[in-house]
Amino acid sequence: MARAALVLATAETTRAQPHRPDTAWIRELWRDRAQAPEVRLAAAIGWLCLTDEPAPDALHTTVDALATEERARAMDVLPWMAAVGYGEPGLLRCVRRMLHPEEPDPSDDPWA
User: Fold this and answer.
1) 107 and 86 in contact (C-beta within 8 Å)?
2) CA distance linking residue 32 with residue 18, whole number of Å
3) Any alpha helices (H) in 17-89, and if so which ranges?
4) Nearest-angstrom CA–CA distance, 86 and 24
5) Hey, how many other C-beta atoms are within 10 angstroms of the C-beta on 65?
6) Contact 63/41 with Cβ under 8 angstroms?
7) C-alpha 65: how far from its chain's center?
8) pLDDT tens digits for 3-27?
């Protein structure tokens, strides 16, 4: 989890002060199957925040496979994830808003 936090911190810093090598490094992290799932997920979210490129199919596949409810709840210990949750695990909200914008926000459902 500490490595995932560092990846998110790097993405936040890189967003404020663009540095192409950091963006490329973060992209490689989400692709690297040897990395912990939390690191790959943090890198995927970070990379999406750093680029205007469309999310490649491989990123969709990776995130959809790794972004489980259990992992999302575990990642809520990271300040960046907890801050974006608004009543749901932050990772799941990021994934829904960034990769699946067609899915309704859980708070939009009056019957939920």
Assistant:
1) yes
2) 22
3) 20-31, 37-50, 57-66, 69-75, 79-84
4) 30
5) 10
6) yes
7) 13
8) 999 999 999 999 999 999 999 999 9
